[in-house]
Amino acid sequence: MNTVISENYEDEGEICEKNPIASRLQSHNDNSSLIFQKEIPLRSIKSCSPQQHDKFDFQNERCKIPSYECLRLDKRKTTSVFRQTQESVSYSLKGEMNSLIYYKLFDDECKYIVKEIAENLMELNCNIYLEQKQFDEIAEITHSNRLYVLNQEQIPSISLIIVVGGDGTVLYALRQFQSHEPPPILAFQKGTLGFMCVFELKDKYQVLSKQIEHFRTAGQFIVERKLRLKGCLKEREEQKFEYHVLNEFVITRGANPHCLYIEIYINNVLLTVASGDGIIVSTPTGSTAYFLSAGGPIIQNEVSSISIAPICPLSLSFRPIVLPTCLNITIKLANQCRANGFICADGQTTVEFNKDMVFEISQSEKFVSIIQDKSDIDYNEWVLNLRKKLGWNKVFTDQRKQKSNL
Fold this sequence. Notes:
Elements: E1 2-7, E2 10-11, E3 14-15, E4 19-25, E5 40-41, H1 42-45, E6 49-50, E7 57-59, E8 62-64, E9 68-69, E10 71-72, E11 80-81, H2 86-93, E12 97-103, H3 108-123, E13 126-130, H4 132-141, E14 147-149, E15 160-165, H5 167-173, E16 185-189, H6 204-218, E17 221-226, E18 229-235, E19 238-245, E20 248-252, E21 260-266, E22 269-282, H7 290-293, E23 305-313, E24 321-324, E25 329-333, E26 341-345, E27 349-353, E28 357-363, E29 368-371, H8 379-390, H9 394-405
Parallel strand pairs: 12-13, 12-15, 13-14, 15-16
Antiparallel strand pairs: 1-4, 2-3, 5-8, 6-9, 7-8, 10-11, 11-17, 17-29, 18-19, 18-28, 20-22, 20-26, 21-22, 21-25, 22-23, 23-24, 25-28, 26-27
Helix pairs in contact: 3-4
């Protein structure tokens, strides 16, 4: 089946030509990339996100592009995305949609909220998938032939991930999507902070109806694209571990009583040897998490960067540093280390790290798309949200109120 993608591309106020960009030649079980069959003016390329930069062939201001993702840019840099698999789009054309739900663990209230969401999704002609444990809990309180247990074969047909919880629940959901980019995530706030959870639970019925209707008519969601970092742990050139994080990698001494001596290389050039409890390598999304507690700066998501901060350093000579995403970071344990360390990825999985291993970190090609309620960026709203969630000035305000009541 050939699906022709054709869009008006907008970049910095310039509308690029409307051309049939690509044909998706993909069968039900074929995950092949987009194949592009015509040349595109260079000015249109600014509105696209190349996957293979090294294969560009510039000739007379025109370029043959073998493979890239097709994006439409509005005021938000990378907003509306047409990246769904052929299978998920075909479900949409039939009026059906496959939704995957994750909810906050060990929260009994969430079960009944998810029950209501599932019943609403069924009314909207959606199939609901859950992991086995959560499926068992929901199946006990609702009955439907549209409730399924998730398995790896069904992942390509998922069009939407719904999260009920906080940022930790989002990170938990992303464990399933390490080998490929996840579908857009619709997150409802039911956690402690929830920087990634855009929508309130009180509006869940209106939000679900609006977003699903938009997808069925436009074939896309309005999203904010968040970068991930890829970490590869190697021992004598043999890969032992790979993970794509949305927040951070933490290299720590764990329960060992001895501090770590960590060699940090930038593009194979030694930056420093950090001594202390460990280091954090963070994305902008993770800058409001553990990275912030370790003294790192808050970085707005539109600032594409990789940041490194020491954890309880023995020396104050190494401070948090912000780097561009084009750089590669290599982490090793120095010879003077008296114990092994540990690598924790997004708080979801931990592996041991010894002196014979090399940990390589770079920007991941597998982004995360968080569904938004509007296409343009409201920086004032971001500032107010940051102030509210972190409780800035709250203590001083409360103290003034208490004094005035005395």
